């Protein structure tokens, strides 16, 4: 914050401008800093929360010094036994384009383009060749249909349904978007349900998990965008700053140490441009 000479005179700020600047910079802790700003402490809400899923291993501590080799080995074994070793991959697919004129969920079926999009994404997932663990579909019609078409490419992947993944209003977006104005009660209802979905699927591997898992979540743009913000520990209110194409692929890896890595966001590069749609 700086004032021109005229503004200083008008505001009578001459002597107190130093105080004003100090006050201002100290109330700026939650601002995003530019990359060249190196002389600051990260804001407390910018620190990574290691225990975001409440599954941070409780490692046994060395309580005594001068342990025998046998005692050392025992402690190391215990540490290994509580430590996750595998990664969990969450591959989220937005449903294909659907009939926006449909008046209820069962009438909001995939359009012809939507079905082609889903088929291309199924083919892409097959080509990627991951050992998919399972596919979980939102119970809304457009997600069910999209998952069904993807299953044609991945016939051996077990399928489940989940109401927590249904579309909704996760949290009032910041900045608000003119035409997106759900009622507050909708955020109140859907927000807790979508957060429950996040807690159900996003967590680091259990120590007993031997191999990486690849979980497909076939669901919706608001749900996926909220999950991305939550997993990366970005402010969840930022979800509406992201945009996802129909039947696009978003991929987050949760490493054994609990770090979340966004590998792919809204990828639809496997489709020809005339098939790329958002609404
Ligand atoms: C640990 O071992 C060192 C060297 O062997 C010895 O000097 C020290 O007194 C020991 N400490 C304890 C707590 O036994
Ligand atoms: C879309 O839904 C409307 C209203 O239910 C219906 O009249 C129309 O035929 C549907 N269009 C398609 C392509 O399914
Ligand atoms: C883990 O992967 C290995 C190698 O592919 C396989 O032999 C083993 O059965 C897998 N374990 C589980 C629990 O799936």
TrEMBL record:
<keyword id="KW-0472">Membrane</keyword>
<dbReference type="InterPro" id="IPR029033">
    <property type="entry name" value="His_PPase_superfam"/>
</dbReference>
<comment type="subunit">
    <text>Interacts with Pk92B/ASK1.</text>
</comment>
<feature type="compositionally biased region" description="Basic and acidic residues">
    <location>
        <begin position="67"/>
        <end position="83"/>
    </location>
</feature>
<comment type="similarity">
    <text>Belongs to the phosphoglycerate mutase family. BPG-dependent PGAM subfamily.</text>
</comment>
<feature type="region of interest" description="Disordered">
    <location>
        <begin position="65"/>
        <end position="84"/>
    </location>
</feature>
<dbReference type="InterPro" id="IPR013078">
    <property type="entry name" value="His_Pase_superF_clade-1"/>
</dbReference>
<dbReference type="Pfam" id="PF00300">
    <property type="entry name" value="His_Phos_1"/>
</dbReference>
<protein>
    <recommendedName>
        <fullName>Serine/threonine-protein phosphatase PGAM5, mitochondrial</fullName>
        <ecNumber>3.1.3.16</ecNumber>
    </recommendedName>
</protein>
<dbReference type="InterPro" id="IPR051021">
    <property type="entry name" value="Mito_Ser/Thr_phosphatase"/>
</dbReference>
<comment type="function">
    <text>Displays phosphatase activity for serine/threonine residues, and dephosphorylates and activates Pk92B kinase. Has apparently no phosphoglycerate mutase activity.</text>
</comment>
<keyword id="KW-0378">Hydrolase</keyword>
<keyword id="KW-0496">Mitochondrion</keyword>
<keyword id="KW-1000">Mitochondrion outer membrane</keyword>
């Amino acid at each position: 914050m700086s004032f021109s000479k005229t503004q200083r005179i008008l505001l009578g700020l001459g002597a107190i401008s130093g105080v004003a600047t100090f006050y201002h910079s100290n109330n700026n802790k939650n601002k995003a800093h530019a990359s060249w700003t190196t002389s600051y402490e990260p804001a407390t809400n910018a620190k990574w929360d290691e225990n975001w899923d409440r599954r941070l291993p409780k490692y046994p501590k060395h309580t005594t010094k001068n342990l025998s080799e046998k005692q050392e080995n025992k402690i190391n074994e215990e540490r290994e036994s509580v430590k996750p070793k595998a990664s969990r991959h969450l591959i989220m697919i937005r449903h294909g384009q659907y009939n926006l004129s449909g008046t209820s969920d069962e009438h909001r079926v995939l359009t012809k383009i939507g079905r082609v999009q889903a088929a291309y994404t199924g083919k892409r997932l097959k080509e990627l060749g991951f050992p998919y663990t399972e596919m979980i579909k939102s119970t809304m019609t457009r997600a069910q249909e999209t998952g069904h078409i993807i299953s044609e490419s991945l016939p051996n992947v077990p399928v489940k349904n989940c109401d927590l993944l249904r579309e909704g209003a996760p949290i009032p977006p910041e900045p608000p978007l003119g035409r997106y104005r759900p009622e507050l009660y909708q955020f109140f209802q859907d927000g807790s349900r979508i957060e429950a979905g996040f807690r159900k699927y996003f967590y680091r591997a259990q120590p007993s998990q031997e191999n990486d898992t690849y979980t497909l979540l076939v669901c919706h743009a608001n749900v996926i965008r909220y999950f991305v913000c939550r997993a990366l520990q970005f402010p969840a209110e930022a979800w509406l700053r992201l945009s996802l194409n129909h039947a696009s692929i978003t991929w987050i890896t949760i490493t054994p140490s609990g770090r979340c890595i966004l590998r792919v966001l809204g990828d639809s590069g496997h489709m020809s441009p005339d098939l790329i749609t958002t609404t």
